[in-house]
Structures are given as C-alpha cells and as structure tokens.
Amino acid sequence: MPYKNPEDEKAYRLRSIENRRARGRERYHKNPEKYRASAKAFIERLKQDPERLEKVRQKRKAYGKKLYQDPEYVKKKKEQADIWWRNNRERSLVIKRAEALRVKIEVLTHYGNGKLVCVQCGFNDIRALSIDHINGDGAIQKRLYHRNHIHRWLKLNNFPLGYQTLCMNCQWIKRDENGEYRYKQFTNYSPRISGLQSIIKNGDSL
Ligand SMILES: [Zn+2]
Questions:
Q1: From ligand 1's centre to the CA of 131, what distance in Å?
Q2: Do residue 142 and residue 125 come from a single domain?
Q3: What is the pTM of this model?
Q4: Cα(121) to centroid of ligand 1, in Å?
C-alpha cells in the first residue's frame, strides 16, 4: 500500500515493527521456558563453531555500540538501571560483592604462582591473604592508580609484574624488616620490632 506522504509511510513502518515486537513479547510470556531452552540450545550450537561464535560476538558488539551512540537510548537505559537498583538494593550488593570476590580469587591465585596461598609460608585462608607490592611502594601506587580497587585494577591491567600474594603475618614481618613505615624520611629512627628485640635481649638500655 503506497503512501503519498513519506512521513505516513515511516509511521506505518514503525507501528508495524512495534506491533511485531509486542506479539513476540506476548508469545514469550505465554511460554518462557520454551524460548529460554531454545536460546540455550542456540548458544550451545554456536559454541561448536568458534568461527561463527566470534562473528556473532562482533556483530552484537557493533550493534551495542551503535545503540549507545543514541543519547536517548543511553538515558532510557540509565533510568531502567536506576529503577532496578532501587528495587533490588540487597541483590545488587550481593552481586557486586560476589563479583569482587571472584576477581580477588583470580588475582590472588595469579600472584600466588597459580595457587591461592601466601608465597612465603603457604597460608591459604583467603580472609587473611592480600596483594603485596614487592618494592614496598604500595601507598604511592594506591594514591596514583588503584585507590581501594587493587584487585580490579591488576586484572584490568593484565597482571603487571611487581606484586605477590602474602598473608597478613608475612606482610607485617616484611614491613618491619624493610622499615616500610609511613614516614619514610625517619626510617632510621622507625621502631623496628626486630631491632628493638635484640636491644632487649642484650640488656642494653634504650
Ligand atoms: Zn605468609
């Protein structure tokens, strides 16, 4: 059916696209399991063919990029995310923490030479394991680069050299032995416990 006015034709096309989408949504909500299963099967089939999988990935990426160039779309997505966040605060916290933990495990394992352990003593409880800056310039690096997100930062930067996984015991011992104190200019006078111990043992007075 040809339209005399091109604007009318455009409106008709948009309407028909919207109608088609609405019908699709209706079909989906009548029987979501069926559609989820077929989507899963599609992905499984794709995984068999890496070349095609890569193609599909690139296509989807390009499509996403195109969408996000439209400020209206970005605004809509932000609003949707905002509503979701307000309605699912607890869940979003759980998701974020789980993701942070996953990254932490990955990073600590990488810097523990493939194991989730302290490289000095082999201690393996993740609650007391952390990343050590081998050169002892952690405070500066923290201020410059990663703030409180060291694990994420290390992963994003493809695991740079100069870090290791240590347990907190080994961290404190290293700090004491290397004199890694906050006021570096006073390092000669900083109260190293190992130094003080020998003084006490020798019976010298301070
Ligand atoms: Zn240790």
A1: 11
A2: yes
A3: 0.62
A4: 4
Inter-residue contact 173 to 179 (CB < 8 Å): no
Q: Is residue 40 part of a domain?
A: no
Range of the domain at 172: 96-181
- Same domain for 66 and 115? no
| Whether residue 56 sits in one domain with residue 129 | no
Residues 76 and 105 in one domain: no
| Ligand 1 centroid distance, CA of 172 (Å) | 10
Gap from CA of 165 to ligand 1 centroid (Å): 9
Dist. CA 29 → ligand 1 center (Å): 54
If we measure between CA atoms, which residue out of 169, 156, 162, 167 comes closest to residue 106? Answer: 156
The one-digit pLDDT tens for each residue of the chain (206 residues) are 678 888 888 899 999 999 999 999 999 999 999 999 999 999 899 989 999 999 999 999 999 999 999 999 999 999 999 999 999 999 999 999 999 999 999 999 999 999 999 999 999 999 999 999 998 888 888 888 888 899 999 999 999 999 999 999 999 999 888 877 665 555 555 567 777 777 777 765 55
CA–centroid distance, 17 to ligand 1, in Å, is 62
Q: Tally the domains of the chain.
A: 2
